[in-house]
Write a structure and sequence with these properties.
The chain has 2 domains: 103 residues, Type II secretion system (T2SS), domain F (Receptor-associated Protein, Up-down Bundle), CATH 1.20.81.30; 43 residues. The protein contains 8 helices and no strands. The chain has 174 residues and is an all-alpha fold. It is 74% helix and 0% strand.
């Protein structure tokens, strides 16, 4: 029975792998541990995924075959579990996978932060410049007009830039 394809995030995969490694290091039978894991995740977003994996482990006795039945698990994880079962090193493989997915989650968070910060700064810069051009510059123009002075041509150009100065963007003072 192939499940619907859902993207499991790296933090969830890391948690799953570390919990399976803990089950194996405690010496519990895998089917009992998976059953307990499925019970503890009831009500969570991935409860049905854990439940189907638990049932499949009980039926087949193999975590590899259980994960292979559902397309939601990443291929890398499934194949590494298969290698761990074949070599008898499933606990070490699961610990390694937990570290791998935790590192992947940290990298993804770092990338999101590294991209978000400059974007926010850019938006703020555009907003500040827009406020300066459309709110502050007209105030200076009114002050200069009230004093009887003519505003500088460059300031006038920037005030009306979108409509009037675009064809002469290269000119130093419109």
């Amino acid at each position: 029975m192939a499940g619907k394809k859902r993207a499991l995030d790296s933090a969830e995969l890391s948690s799953f792998c570390s919990q399976v490694a803990l089950i194996l290091s405690a010496g519990l039978p895998l089917y009992d541990g998976m059953e307990t894991l499925a019970e503890t995740t009831k009500g969570s977003e991935y409860a049905d995924l854990y439940e189907s994996a638990s049932k499949a482990v009980t039926e087949t006795g193999s975590l590899y075959q259980a994960l292979q039945r559902d397309e939601s698990w990443p291929t890398y994880l499934v194949e590494m579990v298969g290698i761990g079962e074949q070599t008898g090193q499933l606990e070490k493989v699961m610990n390694g996978l937990a570290d791998y997915y935790a590192r992947e989650d940290r990298i993804r968070s770092s990338i999101i932060g590294a991209v978000t910060y400059p974007l926010v700064l850019g938006v703020m810069l555009v907003l500040i410049i827009a406020i300066m051009l459309w709110k502050v510059l007209p105030v200076f123009q009114r002050v200069l007009n009230s004093m009887g002075a003519e505003p500088p041509s460059a300031g006038w150009c920037w005030r009306w830039w979108p409509w009037w100065c675009w064809p002469w963007w290269w000119a130093p003072s419109c």
